[in-house]
């Protein structure tokens, strides 16, 4: 039996005749983390939104444990823990009310809420309004709701944006722990150092096109930063 959890097959996205993402295919196995690397406009967020089912593909198919969103919508969505980029919480709602809202949606008990909030370092801030949260604190709340259920697939869009070095390191440790639990992880990032620390596989995107992909070992000799710079220079 295959341990492939996510299969993206010849997926592309076109909006009003403009190609946003050229055909892309890959498989991701349980217990592995895939980093989507590239600059703004590379297509990372578009791909992520298609994986989690927020945006339809123009062509191609995405399956999660053999399911498509169309064939098993409820089960497909429940199988993903998703952290969007720069989500705007309701500013007047407290952190406690916010995480309880997500927990109720996902059927999570108070013990799990307490554990995940402690893990992201927000226990002492639960009575604060979300409007009083810094960017980094909002990011940690988004990460908490994504990890609440220990889903088979975790999908994170620019998860380290706004995090200080301590929490970037803590984030990395949380992802490494998720991999040990055989969860699969897809995350986008501008931070190639983070990708080097926790990713098993890399996809480099530029202007909606895959310019290189493979296991992390493929790029260890030159490093991800030098590799990406070289790839982009060859395109310009």
UniProtKB/TrEMBL annotation:
<dbReference type="GO" id="GO:0016887">
    <property type="term" value="F:ATP hydrolysis activity"/>
</dbReference>
<dbReference type="InterPro" id="IPR027417">
    <property type="entry name" value="P-loop_NTPase"/>
</dbReference>
<dbReference type="GO" id="GO:0005524">
    <property type="term" value="F:ATP binding"/>
</dbReference>
<keyword id="KW-0813">Transport</keyword>
<keyword id="KW-0547">Nucleotide-binding</keyword>
<dbReference type="InterPro" id="IPR017871">
    <property type="entry name" value="ABC_transporter-like_CS"/>
</dbReference>
<keyword id="KW-0067">ATP-binding</keyword>
<feature type="domain" description="ABC transporter">
    <location>
        <begin position="6"/>
        <end position="232"/>
    </location>
</feature>
<dbReference type="InterPro" id="IPR003439">
    <property type="entry name" value="ABC_transporter-like_ATP-bd"/>
</dbReference>
<dbReference type="InterPro" id="IPR051782">
    <property type="entry name" value="ABC_Transporter_VariousFunc"/>
</dbReference>
<dbReference type="Pfam" id="PF00005">
    <property type="entry name" value="ABC_tran"/>
</dbReference>
<protein>
    <recommendedName>
        <fullName>ABC transporter domain-containing protein</fullName>
    </recommendedName>
</protein>
<dbReference type="InterPro" id="IPR003593">
    <property type="entry name" value="AAA+_ATPase"/>
</dbReference>
């Amino acid at each position: 039996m295959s341990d492939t959890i996510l299969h993206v097959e010849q997926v592309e996205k076109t909006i009003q005749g403009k190609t946003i993402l050229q055909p892309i295919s890959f498989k991701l196995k349980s217990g592995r983390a895939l980093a989507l690397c590239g600059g703004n406009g590379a297509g990372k967020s578009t791909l992520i939104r298609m994986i989690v089912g927020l945006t339809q593909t123009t062509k191609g198919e995405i399956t999660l444990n053999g399911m498509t969103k169309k064939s098993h919508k409820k089960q497909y969505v429940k199988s993903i823990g998703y952290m969007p980029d720069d989500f705007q919480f309701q500013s007047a709602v407290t952190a406690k009310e916010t995480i309880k809202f997500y927990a109720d949606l996902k059927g999570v008990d108070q013990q799990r809420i307490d554990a995940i909030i402690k893990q992201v370092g927000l226990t002492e801030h639960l009575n604060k309004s979300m409007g009083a949260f810094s960017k980094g604190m909002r990011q940690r709340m988004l990460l908490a709701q994504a990890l609440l259920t220990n889903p088979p697939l975790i999908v994170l869009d620019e998860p380290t944006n706004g995090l200080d070095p301590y929490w970037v390191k803590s984030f990395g440790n949380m992802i490494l722990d998720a991999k040990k639990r055989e969860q699969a992880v897809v995350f986008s990032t501008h931070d190639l150092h983070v990708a080097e620390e926790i990713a098993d596989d890399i996809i480099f995107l530029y202007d909606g096109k895959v310019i290189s992909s493979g296991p992390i070992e493929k790029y260890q000799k030159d490093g991800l930063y030098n590799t990406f710079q070289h790839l982009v220079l060859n395109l310009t």
